[in-house]
Design a protein that fits this description.
Order of helices and strands: HHHHHEEHHH
Number of helices: 8
Number of strands: 2
Structural class: mainly alpha
Low-confidence stretches: 266-272
Number of domains: 2
Strand content: under 5%
Shape: globular
Helix content: over 70%
Largest sheet: 2 strands, antiparallel
Distance between the termini: 25 Å
Length: 272
């Protein structure tokens, strides 16, 4: 099952690249925004290669990483499929449907396979010195295992920065078109995106260490990210940008907040 998932992830990464190239090929009058979003979507395909490595090593973070990667990848490709005017090209629509099936299959294997669940819960391998010399062995960590929901909240939080950075880069096209007065606003957008990545990296690090104070901070940063992203998308990129670049952040923020809530609720209080 582990090898099957690795092959499925490799096929998904390849299919993502093929679909994005097809969309670019059939796009009429591709502009700066389409170029930026296509480049970002192509970079995302590398995430599947990283996920293959996490699965192979049996990392517990493979599940939340796979969830966020699949969801945001579908959003990234969907906003490329739908043109600003007219109907989307049939090859792009068919390719997107194929990606939906592949990503669904990846998530089903990650969250429904008992064999994979056991594999991803194995302790990490470390160098151990014993009578036989140095060898790599599975060693139980000293800290208690981290909740899968907390890992999901961390991965989702770390995605805020990139999701804010992409529309900021798209907005640079407005400056290239002569709207130089927007430079300060776009600069603030860049600073907010980079700052969000930095702060989320620090705060969610302590979140995984079992501290209580990062939880309200993650919620506050989530609200700040939405308060920055959504108005700027609307003002600079119009309703089209709000849907293409605002919706992925809204969904990711929802996953982060839901994961925090699930991590706080005792298992006995949840209905199966």
């Amino acid at each position: 099952m582990v090898r099957l998932l690795q092959w499925l992830l490799a096929v998904t990464a390849l299919a993502t690249v093929v679909v994005e190239v097809l969309i670019w090929w059939y796009a009429q009058g591709g502009d700066w925004g389409l170029a930026v979003r296509t480049g970002w979507a192509l970079l995302r395909s590398l995430g599947f290669l990283l996920l293959i490595r996490q699965v192979r090593l049996g990392r517990a973070s493979a599940r939340p990483f796979g969830l966020i990667l699949c969801v945001t990848t579908l959003f990234a490709v969907a906003r490329l499929v739908v043109p600003k005017q007219g109907l989307p090209a049939a090859p792009g629509v068919l390719g997107f449907l194929v990606l939906v099936l592949l990503c669904t299959a990846v998530l089903v294997l990650l969250y429904r396979s008992d064999e994979l669940a056991a594999h991803l819960q194995r302790p990490p391998r470390r160098l151990v010195m014993d009578r036989s010399g140095l060898s790599l062995q599975h060693v139980e960590p000293k800290r208690p295992p981290v909740s899968g929901w907390l890992l999901t909240a961390r991965v989702a939080g770390l995605a805020y920065g990139p999701l804010m950075l992409v529309p900021a880069i798209v907005a640079v096209g407005l400056v290239l078109d002569g709207r130089v007065t927007l430079v300060p606003v776009i600069a603030i957008w860049f600073i907010a995106a980079l700052g969000m990545s930095y702060l989320m990296g620090i705060v969610t690090f302590f979140l995984l260490r079992g501290k209580r104070w990062p939880r309200p901070v993650v919620i506050l940063l989530t609200l700040v990210a939405l308060a920055v992203q959504l108005p700027l998308c609307w003002l600079l990129l119009d309703g089209d940008g709000l849907v293409r670049d605002g919706a992925p952040l809204v969904v990711t923020a929802g996953l982060a907040l839901y994961a925090l809530w699930r991590a706080d609720v005792p298992t006995s209080n949840l209905r199966v």
